[in-house]
From TrEMBL:
This is aspartate-semialdehyde dehydrogenase. The lineage of its organism: Eukaryota, Viridiplantae, Streptophyta, Embryophyta, Tracheophyta. InterPro entries: Asp_semialdehyde_DH (IPR012080), Asp_semialdehyde_DH_beta (IPR005986), NAD(P)-bd_dom_sf (IPR036291), Semialdehyde_DH_NAD-bd (IPR000534), Semialdhyde_DH_dimer_dom (IPR012280). One of its GO terms (molecular function) is aspartate-semialdehyde dehydrogenase activity. Belongs to the aspartate-semialdehyde dehydrogenase family. It comes from Setaria italica (Foxtail millet).
Length: 372
């Protein structure tokens, strides 16, 4: 992505409504001799660009920064924090020499090929793909949920830490505090997933399709096989023999690993909706112990990284637009499940920014844990 394209995508990825406060990069310089050497793999992509914004927003310290991408992007120049960086070829010899932390967001194939190479050079790889999530030797981490999984990971000792799937992160940010209190026995999740989950090209196509349909033209369908604008359809992940698609099974398997509970029952239905950025999820929970909705609100109100938007009188609840470009996951529609007895069930509605907390922010938070 050239600098001009990066600006266009940055504008597209950050709707004006509901934006978080951003400090201009000129207010600080993160270069610090006592900071780690950081590499960003997939630096020209949507999540790679968000890595850079999160690094600025959180004052993440680094003594050097290396931007890596595919051969076709090598040589491009990107401005960041009053400096200009040349994107380097990921496959070039020495790409990971001297790197302490490598933030990967370039797809599973790239991670499987180059992640071990970075580890061999002593880097801790924080990988945003699905390549290593279910490896029993690789921690699968949401810092607010299971930081203990990072206990044996140290800077200077090469390792891989996996970022969970965006839908799993958004769901478990809300479900875990309740699970700790009353133990979830069964969770039913329906997701409403934005174009951002399929990358910047999908977002551009949704924008183009909307214009085309409103003008009475046939929609361009290059990213998805069917019209996306003014439509919803089953998530485009491959469908497996059991009838679930891969996105749905990620939520099932990842929840069990993150909670360290192989017996928790999870079922999911994942849907694409014509929203530009941020996912929404309807979550039904069945508990081992009684949990009333007022107690649930208090638990969620105290949970880190969670904001409650639950105004019944005004019919105001979480929306993707309001959480776009925000760090926190918003929770609302908190109510007792009338189909379950003895206050053993709750329904909640959750919205979170897929690119932010669902990807880049979570990865940078993992990197922050390495500095403690």
């Amino acid at each position: 992505m050239q600098a001009a394209a990066a600006v266009r995508h940055a504008h597209l990825l950050a709707p004006s409504a509901g934006r978080s406060r951003r400090r201009p990069s000129t207010v600080r310089m993160a270069l610090r001799e006592d900071g780690p050497s950081v590499a960003i793999v997939g630096a020209t992509g949507a999540v790679g660009q968000e890595f850079l914004r999160v690094i600025t927003d959180r004052d993440f310290p680094y003594r050097s920064l290396r931007l890596l991408a595919s051969e076709r992007s090598a040589g491009k120049r990107l401005a960041f924090e009053d400096r200009e960086y040349t994107v380097q070829d990921l496959a070039a010899p020495g790409a990971f020499d001297g790197v302490d932390i490598a933030l990967f967001s370039a797809g599973g194939g790239v991670s499987r090929k180059f992640g071990p190479a970075a580890v061999a050079r002593g880097a801790v790889v924080v990988d945003n793909s699905s390549a290593f999530r279910m490896d029993p030797e690789v921690p699968l981490v949401i810092p607010e949920v299971n930081p203990e999984a990072m206990a044996n990971v140290r800077l200077g000792q090469g390792a891989i830490v996996a970022n969970p799937n965006c839908s799993t992160i958004i769901c478990l940010m809300a479900a875990t505090p309740l699970h700790r209190h009353a133990k979830v026995l069964r969770m039913v999740v329906s997701t409403y997933q934005a174009a951002s989950g399929a990358g910047a090209a999908a977002m551009e196509e949704l924008k183009l399709q909307t214009k085309e349909v409103l003008e009475g033209k046939a929609p361009t369908c290059n990213i998805f096989k069917q019209q996306y604008a003014f439509n919803i359809f089953s998530h485009n992940a491959p469908v497996l023999e059991n009838g679930y698609n891969e996105e749905e099974m990620k939520m099932v398997k990842e929840t069990r690993k993150i909670w360290n509970d192989k017996d928790v029952k999870v079922t999911a239905t994942c849907i694409r909706v014509p929203v530009m950025r941020a996912h929404a999820e309807s979550v039904n929970l069945q508990f081992e112990k009684a949990l009333d909705e007022d107690t649930a609100r208090e638990i969620l109100r105290a949970a880190p990284g969670v904001t409650i938007v639950d105004d019944r009188a005004a019919n105001r609840f979480p929306t993707p637009l309001e959480v776009s470009d925000k760090d926190d996951v918003a929770v609302g529609r908190i109510r007792q499940d009338l189909s379950q007895d003895d206050n053993r069930g709750l329904d909640i509605f959750v919205c979170g920014d897929q690119i932010r907390k669902g990807a880049a922010l979570n990865a940078v938070q993992i990197a922050e844990m390495l500095l403690k």
